[in-house]
Amino acid sequence: MRLSAETEELLQVVTVLDDRIDAAVALEFKENVRQITETAPATVILDLSAVVFIDSSGLGAIVATMKHLAPQRTLVLAGLTAPVDRVFRLTRMDSVFSLYPTLSHALEDLS
Amino acid sequence: MVARNQGDKVGRDNAFVGVFEMSLAGRTQAVRDALTTCRAHLSTICRNSEKLDDIELVIAETLNNIVEHALAERQDDAPIQISCTQDGDLISLVFKDSGIPFANHTPPGPKQVGTIAHAKSLPEGGYGWGLIHHLAHDISYVRVNQHNVLTIVFDGVTSITDNAQKPS
Questions:
Q1: Whole-angstrom distance, CA of residue A49 vs CA of residue A57
Q2: Contact A67/B119, CB-based, under 8 Å?
Q3: Which B residues 4-43 touch A at CB under 8 Å?
C-alpha cells in the first residue's frame, strides 16, 4: 500500500497511490497511514483520487484512521471516484466524513 | 441413493443460462484476481459500469466473508466455487464453499450504520452485509452436504447501458 504525504503548517495531504483499498491491504493501509500521520497537523486530507475500488474492510480501515486521529486531528476525504463515493453514501459515511469531490476543492475550503 | 443437485432448482424453474464458472483458493490474496476475472466475464453481458461496480463489490464482500468466517479455521486453502447464470435481465451468482455454516443457518441481515453523533463509537467493520443487502435483488442460502450454497440475484443487469443511462 503506497502512500505519499505533503505537510504544510495547518494541514497534511496524504495521497493513496494504489487503486484498491480492500481486505488484502486494509491492515497495511491502516498501519501506513498511522505512521505517515504521526506528526500531522490539525487537518489530514486523504486524497483518494487514484482509488477505484474500496470494500467494507477498506472502509473500516478509513474509519479506524479517523478515530485514531481524533480528537486532536480531523480526517477529511477528497477526490472520491464514482465507485468509492457510492460505498460511502450507501453506508451513510457521507454523514460522518467531510467529502470533497477533488483535492483542490478540499484545499480551497480548508486553507 | 438419489443425488440432489442444488443447481437443478434454478434450471427447473426458469431459463437461466450459464455465463461463467470459476474456482478460487479461499484466502484473501486470491480474492482480487477472482474479482478481475468475474468482472471480465460480467462485462460481456453488462454494459453499465455502475452496475458492474455494484456486482463487483457484492462479490468482494461475499468472498471476503467466506474467507474470514466460513473458512477462517481452515489451513488448506479450501476452494470457493462461483457460478453465474443469466435469465434475461437477471443474473444469479452461486457461491459454494465447504466452511462452517452461518449462525442459525441464516445469513446476517443489514446493520444500521451510525451518524456523526456516534462517530467515536463508529464500528470499524460490519458494513459488508449492509452493502450486499442493499445492492442485491435477492439473497438465499442453503446448507447442502456440508457445503454452504449462497445465491445472490441481481436485476437490471443487461437493460441499462452507460450511454442510455438517465442522469440521476
A1: 18
A2: yes
A3: 28-29, 31-32
CB nearest A91 (choices: B49, B119, B127): B127
Q: What domains sit in chain B, N to C, each tagged with a CATH number?
A: 16-154 (3.30.565.10)
Could you give the number of structural domains in chain A?
Answer: 1
Contact present, B37 and B8 (Cβ < 8 Å):
no
pLDDT in tens, chain B (168 residues): 444 444 444 445 567 899 999 999 999 999 999 999 999 999 999 999 999 999 999 999 999 999 999 999 998 889 999 999 999 999 999 999 999 999 999 999 886 544 444 666 788 888 999 999 999 999 999 999 999 999 999 999 988 777 655 554
CATH code of the domain containing A43: 3.30.750.24
**Residue linked to cell 481524533:** A70
Note down the domain range covering A42. Answer: 3-106
Size of interface A-B (CB pairs under 8 A): 82
| Residue type at B23 in one-letter notation | S
Q: Does A111 map to a domain?
A: no
CA distance A50 to chain B (A): 16
Query: Can you tell me the distance from the alpha carbon of B29 to that of A51, in angstroms, rounded to the nearest whole number?
Result: 18
